[in-house]
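When time allows, look over one protein, given below as sequence and tokens. The question is which stretches look regular and which look disordered:
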Amino acid sequence: MKNVFLFITFNCICFFSFSQVGYLDGYFINNEGEKTKCLIKNMDWRNAPIKFQFKLSEKERTQVLSIENVQEFGLDKGIIFRRFPVEIDHSTTRIDWLPFDPLPKFKKDTLFLKLLVEGKASLYVYQYEGEESFFYSLDNDKSVQQLLQKAFLSKKNKVHYNYRYKAQLSENLVCNDENKTALLDLQYNYKDLSAYFISYNECNNSTYKDFSKKQTRASFVLNVRPGVNFSRLSVSEGSISTFTEFDQEIHFRFGLESEVFLPFDNKRWSFFLEPTLVVNNQLEARNEDYSLNVAIENIELPFGGRYYFSLNNNSSMFFEGGVILSSLLRARLTYESVTGASGLVTIVYSNFFYGLGFKVGEARIGIRNNQKRRIHTSSVSYDSLVLTLGYNLIKPAKK
């Protein structure tokens, strides 16, 4: 049975690795200013896009539009890209590639910039290969200016910075003394710059929209995890000359799982911790010479990671893997033979697991293969196939 499960898991991973990412409600605005509602393939866009895929409806074929044909596109959940002609300095922050020149070297280009804050003062970011360049516009100006920070090397090969962006903000985006004070410690990053632009808009009594928090927040989920274990236990004790394998037994488990979704790649990655009480009914095996009895009751602590594949806007498939740590509440192995009876207090060692499952709304179902683990050195081994259910008590934050 476990070989069949391994085969199914392997083929599912191969299939879904090449499956499509989910399409989400969105829109695009063409060069004529016409807005079209559609479904856009959500690529998370860790690098600024130059094109995107969309469908006019679920049943329509996939189409592609590029930066030459679209002045803006976005997802309804709060991601917006706008096209701008820019002059950009592509200076790197990698120490081994730093120049000696502190002055920017501008290059003309046409880019999709991601909107972070929209208001009287708007903030954008251009992301490419781990580098971030920020741009701003004022009073709905259709042009943007780059906020400049450049790292460079001195003649003694020490790293210095040109903090031109602080002067730019001081000259153009200061509303009160609080803004001036904030500039002293203002860092060139998502969080600090977004907060500064929000503060400036509030100071000017300007309505604004904040898209920055929606794109960077991790989310936490708490769910109940009842289930059933299909377990098999094998015993090979020194005083017993034969190897004994018990029949497969069914017993219940109950867990409470905490899961954290990481704030990137559309929150497809997560880590989880699942304290679980597992109670085995008493297991027995007999042959001509021996009578064995095993009872185990323990708390399992599975810790691992998951990767989700979107099937549609409300359901997904996931694969998981990790390690199980066990703490015994009660364990006893006894056997009877012509030489008499003996009892052993046992110790459970950790083991690995892998599995797959489906999630629909706040509910989920999964199957997990717990690899063989040792109990009492090498004399006793224990493995199981686990069927789990789950329901979110604390719902995840929206992506």
